[in-house]
Amino acid sequence: xxxxxxxxxxxxxxxxxxxxxxxxxxxxxxxxxxxxxxxxxxxxxxxxxxxxxxxxxxxxxxxxxxxxxxxxxxxxxxxxxxxxxxxxxxxxxxxxxxxxxxxxxxxxxxxxxxxxxxxxxxxxxxxxxxxxxxxxxxxxxxxxxxxxxxxxxxxxxxxxxxxxxxxxxxxxxxxxxxxxxxxxxxxxxxxxxxxxxxxxxxxxxxxxxxxxxxxxxxxxxxxxxxxxxxxxxxxxxxxxxxxxxxxxxxxxxxxxxxxxxxxxxxxxxxxxxxxxxxxxxxxxxxxxxxxxxxxxxxxxxxxxxxxxxxxxxxxxxxxxxxxxxxxxxxxxxxxxxxxxxxxxxxxxxxxxxxxxxxxxxxxxxxxxxxxxxxxxxxxxxxxxxxxxxxxxxxxxxxxxxxxxxxxxxxxxxxxxxxxxxxxxxxxxxxxxxxxxxxxxxxxxxxxxxxxxxxxxxxxxxxxxxxxxxxxxxxxxxxxxxxxx
Length: 484
What we know:
alpha/beta; Rossmann fold; Immunoglobulin-like; 6-stranded mixed sheet; 35% helix; globular
């Protein structure tokens, strides 16, 4: 039988998955993380609901971990970003091969008074190709944009560009003194034909440049449900031309809707544009992107953030969950996305003791976090040292810190989804199932009466993929048996 994949989706599944865009609620909840990319977690949930297995490169483990808000202390007065480094358990058995989990966390302040935020010069670039009519997507997008509009300020500047086969300026850049007319323009957008992402994006950049200000947040937000099929379609050329505008001070965030997307392009565009890539799968994602994400669009606080983690010869780095770390002999560094107001973020690492040593020894791990502070207009470096202490006998639960235990559990589940996808691509079908089964079993052993909604969100995705993979493996076994 054909193997479900992100290229092979039934009509039923398309209708089901696209139907998830219903805006059933726009009430504010505390579960979704602000200011961090949510694309991988949202898209994996979307594909799981469609019985479709993702590509391994689509699974960004760190986006599952950071989908929710973390319990991390906020910056103190005068600080822009707070650094929080902690072990799951600061004591580890002196036996060789003992393991410990380190969480490196960051948080920025949430600004309640919108007048304190930088002015916004926002250009919305909206795909109105024919496929936006499917499952009433265009209507849902309009509802989301209309819900976002009241959260902008009168002093903010907004322009709207729409595109299908060609691009047009629906509303030139202007202040939001007449919101009623803007609402009428948004309500009047109707789906057209093909998809010329390049034309829409370039026109959006040009509109943003007309009102460019060094003291404002100058941002283009591209919303699309498809793959470029008109005009310039080469992803490298689109990315290159987009970068030329980013270099002139206009940032970019991208939002994907629906199934047929060039996710690689949207992620690359957002990353080079100092913004975030989101995928909208359901009402929860729509609220996160269009409502809760708004503050991060208008209030970036830290750019070019880099975290460096150094450790001594007594420890071995077993795994970093997600990200793209650069490893050295006794340390690593990770370039993070730019940080906005209202953000919490963690990096999860697992260490192993190199060999048996006498008890009482302490192994320090030094964390240096460097970023450019937009308000202070200077580079800032924060440093924190946390030591791991060897003790005789058993050291107890390596996840005795509740917050670390929660995030590490989500990391294991997300990693199992990625491992499943990689094994599936290599036709190691039984290994794909085993990866999920092992992580799910570990989750239930730690949380036999699971009551945490954030863990449950990722667990349900893993369980859905487990059902899909198990079913296909059983069908393959039956087919092989019949052929004997």
